[in-house]
What we know:
Layout: E1 3-11, E2 17-23, E3 29-32, H1 35-41, E4 46-48, E5 54-56, E6 66-67
Amino acid sequence: RLKADIVRVGVAGNGLPLYEFRYLNGDTRYRGVMAQDVLRHTPEAVVTRPNGYLAVRYDLLGLEMSIVQ
């Protein structure tokens, strides 16, 4: 609900799908994982923020979300 232009671009070393996307309010593209995939793989790495949206704890996955150049 917060992301647009989502494209699967590969698989991380831990088996999670990697995506490129942008947030609805911006033009910057990012590469990362989707919380829904992480819930099935490593549920403890997903938290629910006060606004009700899911967020990924990348530190628990050994990954980083990155900006796509």
